[in-house]
Amino acid sequence: MKKNLLLTSTFAFFLSAVAIAQNNEVTQKIKDEGLNKSKVMETAFYLTDVSGPRLSNSPGLERAEKWAVEKLKSYGLQNVKLEPWGKFGKGWEVEKYYAAFTSPYYHNIIASPKAWTPSTNGPIKGEVFLMKADSLPDLAQFKGKLKGKIVLTPTTAVLATSFKSDGERYTEEELAAMVAPTPAGGGQRGGQRDPAALARMTKLREFRTQLTAFLKEEGVALILTYSRGNHGTFFTSNGASYAEDAPSALPELEVSSEDFLRMQRLLVAGMKVEMEADIKTKFFDKDLTGYNVVGEIPGSDPKLKDEVVMLGGHLDSWHAATGATDNAAGCAVMMEAVRIIKSLGLKPKRTIRIALWSSEEQGLFGSRGYVAQHYGDRTTMVLKPEHEKISAYYNLDNGSGKIRGIYLQGNEAAGPIFTEWLKPFADLGATTVTARNTGGTDHQSFDALGIPGFQFIQDGLEYNTRTHHSNEDTYDRLIPADLMQAATIIAAFVYNTSERVEKIPRKELPKAQLPVAR
Amino acid sequence: MKKNLLLTSTFAFFLSAVAIAQNNEVTQKIKDEGLNKSKVMETAFYLTDVSGPRLSNSPGLERAEKWAVEKLKSYGLQNVKLEPWGKFGKGWEVEKYYAAFTSPYYHNIIASPKAWTPSTNGPIKGEVFLMKADSLPDLAQFKGKLKGKIVLTPTTAVLATSFKSDGERYTEEELAAMVAPTPAGGGQRGGQRDPAALARMTKLREFRTQLTAFLKEEGVALILTYSRGNHGTFFTSNGASYAEDAPSALPELEVSSEDFLRMQRLLVAGMKVEMEADIKTKFFDKDLTGYNVVGEIPGSDPKLKDEVVMLGGHLDSWHAATGATDNAAGCAVMMEAVRIIKSLGLKPKRTIRIALWSSEEQGLFGSRGYVAQHYGDRTTMVLKPEHEKISAYYNLDNGSGKIRGIYLQGNEAAGPIFTEWLKPFADLGATTVTARNTGGTDHQSFDALGIPGFQFIQDGLEYNTRTHHSNEDTYDRLIPADLMQAATIIAAFVYNTSERVEKIPRKELPKAQLPVAR
């Protein structure tokens, strides 16, 4: 027995060594394809420059989706399709934007219509009205005075000279700190907020709603809103609802800080500011359904091919730029990862499925809808049969920065596996495995249902300072070497997940969220 | 004799001690007025936000000049006037700027007409034509193809993520290095340029002229030019001559790098880019004369009041913003310095004269014209009587940064004087006296004639990265504490110069520049 055991053990060791050797060979091939024969920037070009802004259900998103479907087919993926995830609402795009102040002198204004706000009533001209109101009683004094006016609601923001670089990469110290256990009760996202601050926030939000209703009732022609940012960079958002039955809103511009503050200073000093504007926006309501792009490399192992490994990023963006880092980067990387696997002729055992989500920006709608349809209900925790068949979901949505490691979302059992898988990429700067959570994007839709869902740790670059939701989130912001590195690592992770004997271990299932009695 | 000598010496020491004590008292008063009761930001607001862009001979410059004249009068200055310095040429301003590309999708373009370029022929629409030409022979292929076209001449520029802060202050090490003797034959501005590089530059310039002539002849509708910058910041210049008899040029836009590069990438990939634009610019030729704002605090000492101490900065700016750091900052500081002196009721012995120059941006014309009229001819070195009567000229034109010291322009004899005068401002960060030259602004007009002319060392802040000649050189860029510090130090320097027994020592007179035989 002893001898036999030894033989078996030796044979197992031999098999394991062969597997590791094969795996190393595949990893080297993936590295070569991903780093030396990359197509990731070409993909990024089509998703950004060629498709344009990709607001949910806009023509730009449709262009990108159609292009992605054709491209994935051309790689040899199967079952490539636009898969509906549910009802979203109206699409919207800018057909014309022009605004300038014309007195005390002429100055063209850097700004953008807020998403889903309507056109001005043709070209308009008029004095800018400074309306300082902080609470409901303040509004009374303006009753009857705002009809046809261009209204500026002041900000207390002041710009500061920046002595910190816009772009940054993680230092070794910062990465080490991410691995260290966080002190109890703090240090991670999602901590308790100060109740007083929450109350103030709620009150502010209430007043914003009251203000909007008041301005609508008074027949204001155009609202000017301060947009944070600096030096011509500004950040965009939505100004009205995309719902099918949403009441019409007012035209509203998000104005770059310098242009806004200049007008505000002049108005506060009692000077007359006159403005002209011409904004045309268009709504699209023929098809209110939201879609994800989905495609597969079918599994080759008869026992495992019904199991899947998923990877994805969101294809939708905000409207003032082309959403290069948020998140054409992630989509281009994921498309590149499946291209690498296909182009090497690898035959993964499990099915590899890519998904390019939509409506992430409005609340992870595309991935949540997909998860609800395929895997179960996040509230009741009633699961579907596919829930057992998915090994893991990998997401990339923190900009153009290269991968420095991975967040386990508290799934510590996955730690040793990923630590092993990162080893061949230490030379590319990816070494860190942290138990921590990270939030704000589509892996959470999977994690909410107990499916191993991961977001990689990425160098921040200019994500927070310049690109995330800004008017300057363009192709220029992408760093080719970083995207190539990310695609290479993800190709290897996805392939390793497909080949692994077991699926990726899971955390305990989250509890059903029972309705709370009120 | 010995006793007498001792008595005299003691008395002299006593007088000197009194003078120093008085001087210290004045310095404290200046500090209090400049740091605690400052008006510098109010002045800056009127020069920037209220006046607008201040291109030479534009209505914006005229507004600022008139306001400055009235303000200086209100401080109690005398002989305040607009003093003509010679013939400049036409003024110009933007009356409307609108441009967007409309295909493959709509995108409003951040750009500015180049200074002194004409209007488009009303609103125009058309395909953007990519015209790659590097030398005269390249142009032939485009003959007859460009009539009415919007032409984009490509750039090889690529944007990079910034890992360095936009703003910076001098470190103690950098300041120390400025004081250290520079190695022979290097380390200072104005070193010998590589002859091959110079030849390439000359050739390039020649080709630009040929290209412009060709495009004009072909009847191009609009030229799109790449403008360096990042994230919505771009830098402006002039695109045509301001001369009275200048031939008409073509409409030309300086386009922000992201918008330019996006169009270029689409065109290089063979895609159709369509554009619409509407540019109205206006020329002003009623008065071609250039003016400086000049005003005085007349001297109070019968023997010294004919002697002057000058201080100044240039009031003109580029056109895409309000020239806050270049150089409303310098003008506001100089106006504040004379306000401080007047408001304290000081009676300077020598006359203090402030000058706010114009047309600095086109070649220091305002200050050169002034120097030629008052002090002599920089070529022949034929001097005028006033040349002997000026003690020094102090200039501020390196942005919003606080003063860290002063450049001696090689006038080493002035070093110990300035070192002494800076002592009370060590606590404000101003300590450095360097023998080095600095160039590029109006103190050079004085220095060229052997008059002690100085520019202060200022923290760079965002001058090179964001503000100098950019579309984002606005009031927001000014740091109040820095401008207050500068005004305080300059008030003290100017007052000290007016009170000093001797005038500031001079360098040897430059040699006349004899005509070179060809």
What does it look like?
- Two copies of one chain form a homodimer.
- The first copy, chain A, is α/β, with parallel strands linked by helices and 518 residues long.
- Chain A folds into two domains: 35-88 and 288-499, Zn peptidases (Aminopeptidase), CATH 3.40.630.10; 94-160 and 190-283, Glucose Oxidase, domain 1 (3-Layer(bba) Sandwich).
- Helix content of chain A is 35%, strand content 19%.
- In chain A, the strands form two sheets. An eight-stranded mixed beta sheet of chain A has the order 1-10-12-11-13-16-14-15, sandwiched between helices. An eight-stranded mixed beta sheet of chain A has the order 3-2-9-5-6-7-8-4, with helices on one face.
- In chain A, strand 2 (91-103) and strand 3 (107-108) form a beta hairpin.
- The longest helix of chain A has 35 residues, at 2-36.
- Chain A starts with a helix and ends in a 19-residue tail after the last helix.
- Chains A and B meet through helix 2, helix 3, strand 2, strand 3 and helix 7 of A and helix 2, helix 3, strand 2, strand 3 and helix 7 of B.
- Chains A, B: Residues 292-493 form the Peptidase M28 domain.
